[in-house]
């Protein structure tokens, strides 16, 4: 069994990642399950930089293999905002309701055809010495709706519509979301590399 730490306390991300990793091969814990975990400041200017920071700093502190993940929403009409500030767009980290409200206000005068957006995810795996050993990334494109729809997901999911399905991420069940999401696409890139690394 290969022990991994997911460099976040976000339980919804943990569920999504656990569902894609083989339970026979990998054990995955979140930071909320580790009493001596540290808070890593996200000072990077890109998702990739923040993912690497979360992985390497936590790995060196814990002396364990750590998966750092950074993801967020880039809206074309807002020149890529909220971007790396997605979780704290409203000024309060992790306040999904306030973040969604601010996004709707920012796009109030933007026509439907110009409300294109992209979810991005970057993942970095650090060894216990703080060396990045693997990286992967994924994106998912859609539109920002004018009101929330659906009770699932988290973050901007109630506003993010997958055009092919005419549904938001918050309206899709977990299996469908896993097939489409930026995080699952990044993981599908990462897992074969991780399997090879574990076999070495």
From TrEMBL:
Its EC number is 3.6.1.66. Its cofactor is Mg(2+). Binds 1 Mg(2+) ion per subunit. The keyword Nucleotide-binding applies. Mg(2+) binds at residues 41, 70. GO terms for biological process: nucleotide metabolic process; purine nucleoside triphosphate catabolic process. Substrate binds at residues 8-13, 71, 154-157, 177, 182-183. It catalyses: dITP + H2O = dIMP + diphosphate + H(+); XTP + H2O = XMP + diphosphate + H(+); ITP + H2O = IMP + diphosphate + H(+). One of its GO terms (cellular component) is cytosol. Pyrophosphatase that catalyzes the hydrolysis of nucleoside triphosphates to their monophosphate derivatives, with a high preference for the non-canonical purine nucleotides XTP (xanthosine triphosphate), dITP (deoxyinosine triphosphate) and ITP. Seems to function as a house-cleaning enzyme that removes non-canonical purine nucleotides from the nucleotide pool, thus preventing their incorporation into DNA/RNA and avoiding chromosomal lesions. NCBIfam families: RdgB/HAM1 family non-canonical purine NTP pyrophosphatase. Homodimer. This is dITP/XTP pyrophosphatase. It comes from Stieleria bergensis.
């Amino acid at each position: 069994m290969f022990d991994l730490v997911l460099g976040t306390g976000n339980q919804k991300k943990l569920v999504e990642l656990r569902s894609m990793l083989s339970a026979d091969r990998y054990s995955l814990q979140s930071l909320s399950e580790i009493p001596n975990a540290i808070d890593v400041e996200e000072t990077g200017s890109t998702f990739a930089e923040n993912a690497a920071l979360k992985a390497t700093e936590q790995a060196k502190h814990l002396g364990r293999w750590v998966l750092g993940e950074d993801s967020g929403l880039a809206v074309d009409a807002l020149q890529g905002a909220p971007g790396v500030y997605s979780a704290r767009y409203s000024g309060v980290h992790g306040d999904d309701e306030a973040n969604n409200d601010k996004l709707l206000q920012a796009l109030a005068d933007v026509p439907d055809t110009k409300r294109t957006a992209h979810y991005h995810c970057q993942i970095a795996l650090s060894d216990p010495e703080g060396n990045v050993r693997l990286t992967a990334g994924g994106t998912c494109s859609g539109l920002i709706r004018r009101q929330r729809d659906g009770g699932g997901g988290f973050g901007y999911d109630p506003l993010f519509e997958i055009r092919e399905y005419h549904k938001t991420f918050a309206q899709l069940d977990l299996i469908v979301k896993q097939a489409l999401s930026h995080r699952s696409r990044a993981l599908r890139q990462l897992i074969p590399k991780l399997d090879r690394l574990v076999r070495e």
